[in-house]
Amino acid sequence: MVSNESDTFDIGGDLTVHRLGFGAMRITGEGIIGPPESESNAHDVLRRAVELGVDFVDTADSYGPGVSERLIGEALDATRDDLVVATKAGLLRNREGDWLPHGDPDYLKNQALTSIDRLGVDSIDLYQYHRPDPDTDYEASIQAFAELKDDGLVDHVGVSNVSVEQLELARDHVEVATVQNEYSLGNREHADVLDACEEAGIGFIPYAPVGWGSGFEGDVREAAEAVAERHDATVYQVALAWILETSDVTLPIPGTSSLDHLAENVAASELDLTDEDLATLA
User: Fold this and answer.
1) What is the DSSP letter of 33?
2) What pairs with residue 205 in β-bridges?
3) Could you count the other beta carbons within 10 Å of the beta carbon of residue 142?
4) HSE on the CB side for 176, CA within 13 Å?
5) Best label site of 27, 67, 117, 218, fewest CB within 10 Å?
6) DSSP secondary structure of 154-188
7) Three-point CA angle 184, 188, 191, nearest 5°
8) Can you list the domains of the chain with their CATH numbers?
9) Burial class (CB in 10 A: 0-12, 13-18, 19+), 122
10) What band does 213 get if pLDDT is binned at 50, 70 and 90?
11) Dist. CA 174–CA 44, nearest whole Å
């Protein structure tokens, strides 16, 4: 029986979750626009994730837009004490599938209210600024999140797609519980941000933890295949296990719309990498 065997982490010091979570971007339609072909399947995937011991679900108002949050609100009781649902604001969508930064403080505050309604909660467990907006003062955007927390609409605040400098600037205005940046076996660009999170005890949520689509290439792929063969695992399971081993603050959120792939992802939490494996993947 597959179950989430990952260690736990306390988001913001009081929201205890297993470190292997679930990213709910892929339960929407093609291009992350509109509803999925089967909403009942999306409901099943969400419920199955929780049954397998996943207690941290990450989404955003821009997934759909609004679709992922709605499906979570329909399938799960987001108010339960043993489940943390995180969402994000700060990106607009259009029918062409563009991701357009929009950090206007009033817009962010309005989006928090719509997310609360879709998720069916009184307050958002973890609310994250999706991406800095070059046309809006960064500190003004962060201050909006701080005010949402002060008003009791948000329990914890996170930031996403930030540099170390932006993280520190955000921390000047509000307690930052998590950072969500792209990070994987094949993309370690934000290792300095991970280091900063480790030093401060901030959760680091690596999105695209198994890469995008084709996964990894070249030497990275060969190393992952060598380790996967030793453990009778897939390269994607190795990639997830590697992230879990990389740091005690990492909270990978692999996403899928497939029940089979969901089980494979959760099974990665049971994979124990050896020192030899880690050296191969270094």
Assistant:
1) B
2) 180
3) 25
4) 29
5) 218
6) EEEEEEES--HHHHHHHHTTS-EEEEEEE-BTTB-
7) 115
8) 8-216+250-272 (3.20.20.100)
9) exposed
10) low
11) 36
> Whose structure tokens read 């994250």?
128
- Inter-CA distances, 85 with 1, 9, 125, Å: 25, 14, 6
Using CA atoms, how far apart are residues 142 and 139, in angstroms rounded to an integer? 5
Distance CA 120, CA 76 (A): 9
Amino acid present at 61 = D
For 30, residues 6+ apart whose C-beta sits below 8 A from its C-beta are none
Tell me the two tokens of residue 240: 């997830």
pTM of the model: 0.96
**Nearest CA among 243, 256, 253, 261 for reference residue 184:** 243
Length of the chain: 282
Query: CA 40, 258, 221: angle at the middle one, nearest 5?
Result: 160
The answer to whether the CB of 70 falls within 8 A of the CB of 96 is no
At which residue do the structure tokens 């680091």 appear?
204
Active site residue 129: no
| CB contact at 8 A, 19 and 12 | no
For 9-62, the pLDDT digits (tens) are: 999 999 999 999 999 999 999 999 999 999 999 999 999 999 999 999 999 999
Residue 146 belongs to what H/E stretch? helix 138-150
Nearest to 138 by CA among 178, 104, 115, 88: 104
